[in-house]
Design goal:
8-oxo-dGTP diphosphatase, mutator protein, 2 helices, 129 residues, alpha+beta, hydrolase, 7-stranded mixed sheet, globular, 8-oxo-7,8-dihydrodeoxyguanosine triphosphate pyrophosphatase activity
């Protein structure tokens, strides 16, 4: 069985982080996450993240350094986060229920997608907590 990489982008502006509220699937609807998606065949992780954030949020980004550790989900998914820098476009939740800017103090109070919680200590540090 092949492993599918799923990439997520941590868009930080000043001391705030962009988080997105899922619409689907039903078991994750209403939970918050770092936006992103699956890497397609023949695509680099950076290219996939640029494509996903353009599709989901309407923004252009430059992909930077890795954030935290890989997070295995089930038998065949690996979730991997990267820091991203907004370079153009206007944020819009095309594929999410809502978008929100949050500070370090807000991270623990959000109802996160379970896998993304592993990145909270690193995100907190990046936000200057």
């Amino acid at each position: 069985m092949s492993t599918q990489i799923v990439v997520a982008g941590a868009l930080i502006s000043g001391a705030t982080l962009l988080v997105a509220q899922r619409q689907r699937p039903l078991e994750l609807a209403g939970l918050w996450e770092l936006p992103g998606g699956k890497v397609a065949a023949g695509e680099t992780e950076a290219d996939a993240l640029v494509r996903e954030l353009r599709e989901e949020l309407g923004v252009d980004v430059i992909v930077g350094a890795r954030l935290g550790a890989d997070i295995p989900i089930g038998q065949s998914l690996i979730l991997r986060a990267y820091l991203v820098t907004h370079t153009g476009g206007a944020l819009h939740p095309h594929d999410h229920h809502a978008l929100r800017w949050v500070g370090a103090a807000d991270l623990d109070s959000l109802d996160w997608v379970p896998a993304d919680r592993a990145w909270l200590p690193e995100l907190s540090k990046r936000l200057g907590a």
